[in-house]
Structure prediction request, 80 residues.
Amino acid sequence: MPFDADKLGERLMLCRRRLGWTQRQLADASGVRTVTVTRIERGKMPHVSLDVVYRLAEALGASLDALTGRGEDTGVTRQA
Prediction:
């Protein structure tokens, strides 16, 4: 089942902000380019690889289900 790009962007931003991180900090922590983080958060990247989603989730301490909208909460476990 494909995931909703807008929902991914919203959840990514929520998780990132809960940690008090900038897009640049998330990019540095995950190894994903800042422009990619920005495009995902804005819903401008409808096809995101599983590897990228995994790296973002791991950096945030969130589950894949939380970021892709398959979970009800954000699943953030890391503290700011």
Remarks:
- Residues 19 and 79 are 6 Å apart (CA to CA).
- The chain has five helices and no strands.
- The radius of gyration is 11 Å.
